[in-house]
Each structure stands twice: as C-alpha cells, then as structure tokens.
Hints:
Domain Glycosyl hydrolase family 13 catalytic: 2-346
Number of domains: 2
Shape: elongated
Region (Disordered): 412-431
Protein name: Alpha-amylase
Structural class: alpha/beta
Strand order of the largest sheet: 1-2-5-8-11-12-13-14
Distance between the termini: 21 Å
Cofactor: Ca(2+)
CATH topology of the largest domain: TIM Barrel
Family: Belongs to the glycosyl hydrolase 13 family.
Amino acid sequence: MAVMMQAFYWDAPKHDNKEHEWWNFVAEKVEDLHKAGFNALWLPPVSKAASNTSMGYDPYDYFDLGDFDQKGGVKTWYGNSAELKALIAKAHENGIGLYADMVINHNSGADEEETNPLDGQKRWTKFNPKSGRFPRDWNCFHPSRYEQVMLDGENFAGFPHLCHRNPVVYTELFNYSRMLIEELGFDGFRFDFVKGFGAWMIGILSKYRYVKDGKEFQPWVVGEYWSGQDDIDAWIEKVNSYTDNQISAFDFPLRYQLKKVCDEPNYDLRNLTYGESVVMKRPQHAATFVDNHDMGDDMIVNDKLMAYSFILVHEGYPSIFWYDYYNNGLARPLTPNGIDALIQAHHKYAGGDSQILHADPDLYVMQRVGYKDDATDQPGLVYVLNNLGDQWSGTSVKTKWPNQRFIPIAWDGKNAPQPDERTTDADGNAEFPAPPRGYCIYVPA
Length: 445
C-alpha cells in the first residue's frame, strides 16, 4: 500500500512566501515526509508557462524548466531545473517517488496571433520558445490539416488546443515525456484535463518503453477526469484498452460524497456503500483524495479528518493535500488524532478486501480482512465512522476474528478521549464505537 502527497496548492509559492523557491521548500520537507510514511509526491507542472508567476497549467515552453529569460523572468514560479533535479534526487534518496503533472491539452502565452487558413479565424498560435524546442504554429492546434475539428474532447478556457495527430506535436510530447522520466527521473504522470483529448494519447505515452537507470521502466499514471461515475468508468475502460490496465483515475464521485459527510449534517452514510465511486467499483484504478488545488471555494470545511480516515483505510491510492497537511495543521504528528496516525494505520494494517459490516444513516463499520505474503504483513482492521453530532455510537458486528483483542490506534471527533479496547467473542462479535462526528480504527492486538 502507498500514499502520495499533492505537494502544492493554488498560489502556494505566494501564500507560503516561497516564490521561485518552491522546489527548495519541498526539498526541506522530504525527510519528514519519508518518516511520516509518504511514498510519492505529485508535483505541479514543471515547465515555463504564460507567466513566470503561473501555476503552470497554461504551458508555453515545455522544455524551459526555469533556465531561460522569458515570460517575465528566468525561473518558473517554483524554481529552476537544478533545484528541481536536487528535489528529485533527495526524494529518491528517501524512498519517495515523483509524479509529473502533464498539461498536454492546451497552451497559452503565444508570441504572435495567426490567421488559421482552414477557417479564417485569428488565434494566438505562434510559439517561439527560447529553449528552441517545440516551436509551434497554427497547424499544431485545432483546427489543423491533421484534424479539422476536435474529435476527441472538450475545449478548455478558450486556449488553443494541441492537435496530437500532427506528427510534430506527437513527437515532441514523446520527447517531453522522455525528458521527464529518463533525464529528470520522474516515476509517473498525472494527466491534466483528460476530457480534452483522446485516451489513445495517454495510452501511447504510458506504454512507451522508457529506460531508467539502465532498465526498462513503466510509469505509474493517473488521469484527471472531472465528472461522474459513469463517465469516469467509461474513460478508465477506454484508456486501459490501450495499456495493461495500468491507468488510474481520481475518484471525484467519492470526494463529493465525502464532502457531504463532512459538511452536510445528517448525510446518510449508506450512500458510501452503493458503488457510486471509483474505489467501490474499480478499487485497483482508484486514486482517492479529499481536496485538491482546483476545489477553490468548494473545499471541505468541517470535520475533514472524517474524510481522510475513510480514504486511508479503504482500497485505492490515497492522495493527501499539502494545504491540509501543513497549512491546516491536520498532520498532527506523534498523536493518534491526525493524518500521520492514519497513514501508519494504512501501511501497517489496511490490507486485504474491504467488507462492510454495518451501514445505517449515521454509522458505518467496515473491516479490512488483512493480507500476508513474503513481503507484506497487514493484519487487517475494523473502521468505524460516526455521523452523529452529540454522542458516541457503535453497534455489535461480526468480524472475521474470534476471541481477538482489539486496540484503538487512530481516532478523532468531538469529545474524543481514547476509546476502550474491545474483545470479540467466539463467533467474532463485538461492539466497536466511535466518537461524535468522528472515527476510530481498531486493530488486532
């Protein structure tokens, strides 16, 4: 089991007073993140964008990592290539992988406006990047001689959209991907706005035979398909038809369910059981999360640790949001009441299938049955989520463990002293409670 961190939030360099120094700032945290149990960092886009104070989701020069004086300065908002390489090296030294944010749908910051001869429309599509790599004109964008209309996806924010069927574009995106994996040392990709282009493009970039440290390397890959369960499910099916089922998707349906759990009083917890999320239907393809840089005014406001407890005990690949961990102070190291304790529970105990033992409008109880092989020993756990605002709640459930003592290792909620130990009877039955508006994780002693 692994845990990633989204190692940025919107306007992070500005708010943390680390403009053009973000790579160095993240590097300072690497050793502590390793100790906390993080396995990977998802970094923001590394290339020079339309401005050197941009988050990077409006790419201009894919091959300028902060070393050319253009778009307002030399460095990106995060730093330069040397600082990025130093961060990657330090992360790898501490056993932490890196995922690159791939923005290959649209571009911005063009140097000239051009008239597209196919439709007579003027657009900002002339790019003369100072890196000297991947210069572009109208034929690299839609409409193009290679694709006169967009066949694969949606427009985004009025930006010019790359035509991936143009051999120049296709080739340069391979060059960019190879640079990220083979030269910089990234370990995977997060593809931005995958609604906007064909799943085949992600498939071929994912299945390229990268060579890293002298060996063939396959990156971990996740797509941002911001939609409902049916749309995401169809996209996962399609993109994995080009691969060996290696592509995951962020679980937006689950995230919106968890927001309701946290921010809507009396939300029915049975909604978590109906399979209307990626993790419930396709757990091996689920990248679960609580909040991210795009949520803006829709961030979860109340009792957010209830949501983190859920994603860290269930299947899927959980992502922790930097802003919650650091700026909101939810890490709470050396206590049983924060994200750090949940990460340890995830690594040490959350193995095997999830089995829902009880669900009613206010109480959810689940067990992970455990998993053991030559490399892994995760004994399993019992997880209780209590939606009531004014009282502890629990119920007797039948677990897989007869005559077993359980101890609480992670919990939080209102009026949440340490829960008592529990012992199952000869049939595996015991009552497992959790504090008001909170959770508790019990593990075999």
